[in-house]
Every structure is written in C-alpha cells, then in structure tokens.
Amino acid sequence: LALHVVASVLCVVAPTVTVLGALRVVQGLGVAAATVVAMAVVRDLFSGAAFATLLSRLLLVMGAAPILAPTLGGALLRWTNWRGVFVALAVFGAVLVVVAVLGLRETLPADRRRRGGVVATAAVYGSLLRDRTFVGLVLVAGLAMAALFAYVAGSSFVLQQQYGLDEQQFGLAFGAGAVGLIGATQFNVRLLRRHSPQRILVASLGVGTVAGLALLVFAATGLGGLPSLLASLWVVLAAAGLAMPNAPALALSRYGEAAGTASALLGAVQFGVGAVSAPLVGVLGTGAVAMALVVAGAMVASTTVLLVVVRPARLAGPVDDAVVVPAH
Prior knowledge:
Layout: H1 2-12, H2 17-45, H3 48-62, H4 65-76, H5 82-103, H6 117-130, H7 132-162, H8 167-191, H9 197-221, H10 225-252, H11 259-284, H12 288-310
C-alpha cells in the first residue's frame, strides 16, 4: 500500500505519458500485493461455506470496482483534472495504510508458517499447477471476470454510440448493471445458508451461459431492441456476481497452508484473463455484436471448463483443506 501511495504521488507530477505509464505499473504492483494478502487473510480465518460467505463480502469491493470506478472517476473529474484523480488515490491509499496498521492483526499462526524463499515458493506453484481441479476453478473465475471486463470495455460504445443514450441515460443503465452484480454477490451470502458453493457455481454459470447466448442473438438480430439487450446483460452480470465468489472459495479452500501463493496465482489468472477480454472487444469492432460475442464466449468457456476440467462431481465432497501442500 505504501508503494501504491508513493507511485500515486509521483503520478501527480509525471512529466510525460511514458513516465505516467511506468508509474501506473508500479501502482498496480502495490495494489496487487495488497489484494493477495487480503484474500490470504480471509482464508487464514475461514474455510468452506464460511469462506465463500466472507469472500462474497470481499468481492463486493473487488468485483464491483471495475464497474463503479469509471462512474466515480467521471464524477471526480467534474471537480478536478486527471492529476486530481491521483491525489485522491494517494489519499485513499494512505487511509488504508492506517487502517491496516491499526486494525489488522496477524492471522497466520507461527506453527503454520513456511520457510524456504523463492525455491520453496516455486515448488508450491508447481503443486498448484499440477492440481487439475484448482487450475480449472482458477480459469472459471478468470473467464467469469472476462465477461465482466468485456461489458465494462464495450458498454459505452454500444449504449452511447450505437443506441444513442446520453450521458445521464448511460449512467443509469451502467449503474443498473452494477446493482445487478453487487446484489448477486450479496445474495450469494443467503444462498450459502441453504446450498453448497459448488451447487451455486454450477447453477450460476448455467444461467449465465444461456443469458450470454441470448445476448448474442439480441445483438446480432436487433430482436427486442435495447430492453432485450440490457436485460440479458444484467442476467449475465448477476450470474458472474454469483460465480466470482464461489469459484475462488472452492479453489483456495484446497490450499489452507499455501493461501498466499494460491491467492496470488488466482488473482493473476483472474485479472489477466479478464484484462485480455477488454482489447478483444475493441479488435472485434466495439459494437453490440463484438461485446456480446466476447461476453457470451467467456461464459460458454467458463461453463465448459467447469464441466470438462473441474467436473462438478469432484467438488461434491468437503472442500475444507482438501489438499494440503507439504511444508518446505
């Protein structure tokens, strides 16, 4: 977080766009580490359905951020210029540093800590990558994130340029999508009281795939106009909101003794796969069909990986520390 704050301050005084881009990379490194630690802390304290419940709360921020950030950034630019955005990021980061120092205790007991440095960490990564179920769940989470990123990347072009919504109308439509996503992540908490994470994951991806294919049909044919397009988009976002907490929960519950390493790999794949989908929408043309094709493709791929690679029947048993990585 301190690295992020320093990079944000330097962004304010960046003399060229090249320097600004390099500093943005440093910003990302800082927040990425904080994200990994946050996930590992939750895994230290909880497992199984309880972990999925807490992860739903965590993803209220992590999952909603890509949707809310453009709106918040636009609102901030009404009062300041682009340099002011980085001032706000620096201030917010500094607040988080204070919160972490004063309010976050160590969650990993001494008897569960491992030593060995880079070599041991590489060995743990090898164990993770050899676990077919873990890798499959990580890909499922990444592809669900890809559908979300494709929506974020293409929605302004589709809704404003193609369908002619003005800024206020676009803000309302975009905000409704955010409500669907956030509402689903929180509804997941209620669902977990009655259903297992794996059952919710299978059902949500099934619904999301059907909605994604419907979105593609509506985009390609114009059937039902904008209302049909928006309705199917919202269902996809809600399905992603249910899938994104449960896939990581199932994956990380397999590695209680390597929560940090597992969380790092999960985050890298999840945001890496998601980030690829954004430029893909642009390459395909930024229209409704381009956005729908990437969204639907991500949901279909996510469901396929779940059924073929993960195989839900393998998840039927308890997930609490199903696999333990030996200490190095």
